[in-house]
């Protein structure tokens, strides 16, 4: 190979270099999408288990390339965080989710809209202030917004997180702790957070049927959430078995492919209408 000179360069490209190259490409796509509007939100239904009613939607961001290909957030959110683009992306997500919420409200769909906030975004000094501005500009009811922060984001620096969450909470917005069970919460700090909901991570729910340990952890989380008087929400529910199990163990909200995948806004509205008609 060596004899072929420049042409053989790629043979020596390491995995790391490849990854760095890909990140640069994603960074370029992110900048382009921010400038030209290449992001879309998909919405996944949240169901109240007891009544079976649709009560909310989680907004999940996608990056589109304009040629029909879509990139998922696991690929580009880390790049957005590393490059500082997350602040603008996060701002767009909040504005777009609130805009969509208002449209649905006018159509008679009163939903709680859940918005994911990454660790850096959530610790950004103006996050709470900007959220407050969007709420007053749009006149939407703050109680119909739910901010999802991950357990690991919060536990990084609990004291700071308590401060920020209290500021967010004082706007009247709801707060959910996402991916619960995967981080390292000290249970005492959990009680100092102004939470409304625990979301049980799908990694436990996925193995409920086969794995005793996953059942034990899930049951512990559900009972902890209930005794703290929080909503407990199972995510990644794919089977009737999982739904039944969670329901029997005190889980009150459900989300997952069993109900629907995340959908573009117009498909989400269709899904809702079909469900109402059924
Ligand atoms: P998450 O907040 O834990 O979201 C749940 C993920 O699980 C979503 O993946 C969803 O599509 C997927 N999911 C839902 N139900 C099922 C199911 O029944 N089975 C399986 N296997 N998967 C299911 P997605 O959309 O790829 O999002 C991945 C992660 O990206 C999210 O995890 C969240 O942490 C992050 N993310 C998404 N949207 C945003 C955003 O607007 N801002 C920020 N900062 N992060 C976001
Ligand atoms: Ca989430
Ligand atoms: Ca989650
Ligand atoms: Ca997750």
- In terms of per-residue confidence, which ranges show pLDDT below 50 for 5 or more consecutive residues? none
Mean pLDDT: 92
Q: Kindly state the number of beta strands.
A: 10
Q: What helical percentage do the residues reach? A: 40-55%
Ligands and ions found: ligand C2E, calcium ion
Structural class: alpha/beta
Major β-sheet profile: 8 strands, mixed, barrel
Ends: how far apart?
Answer: 65 Å
Strand content: 15-25%
Care to describe what's here?
The structure is a single chain. The protein has 278 residues and is α/β, with parallel strands linked by helices. The protein has twelve helices and ten strands. The longest helix is centred in the first third of the chain and has 22 residues. It binds ligand C2E and calcium ion (3 copies). This is EAL domain-containing protein.
């Amino acid at each position: 190979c060596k004899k072929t000179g420049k042409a053989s360069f790629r043979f020596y490209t390491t995995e790391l270099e490849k990854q760095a190259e890909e990140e640069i490409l994603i960074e370029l796509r992110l900048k382009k999408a921010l400038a030209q509007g290449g992001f879309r939100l998909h919405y996944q239904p949240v169901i109240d288990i007891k009544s079976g009613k649709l009560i909310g939607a989680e907004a999940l961001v996608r990056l589109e390339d304009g040629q029909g290909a879509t990139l998922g957030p696991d690929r580009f959110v880390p790049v957005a965080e590393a490059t500082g683009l997350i602040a603008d992306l996060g701002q767009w997500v909040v504005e777009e989710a609130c805009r969509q919420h208002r449209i649905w409200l006018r159509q008679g769909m009163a939903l709680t809209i859940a918005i994911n906030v990454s660790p850096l975004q959530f610790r950004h000094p103006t996050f709470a202030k900007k959220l407050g501005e969007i709420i007053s500009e749009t006149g939407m009811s703050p109680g119909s917004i739910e901010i999802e922060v991950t357990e690991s984001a919060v536990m990084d620096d609990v004291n700071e997180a308590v401060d920020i969450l209290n500021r967010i909470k004082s706007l009247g917005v709801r707060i959910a702790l996402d991916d619960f069970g995967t981080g390292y919460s000290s249970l005492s700090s959990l009680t100092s957070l102004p939470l409304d909901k625990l979301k049980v991570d799908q990694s436990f729910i996925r193995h409920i049927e086969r794995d005793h340990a996953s059942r034990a952890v899930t049951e512990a989380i559900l009972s902890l959430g209930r005794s703290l008087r929080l909503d407990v929400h199972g995510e990644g529910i794919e089977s009737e078995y999982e739904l039944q199990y969670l329901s029997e163990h005190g889980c009150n909200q459900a989300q997952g492919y069993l109900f629907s995948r995340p959908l573009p806004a117009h498909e989400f509205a269709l899904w809702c209408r079909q469900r109402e008609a059924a």
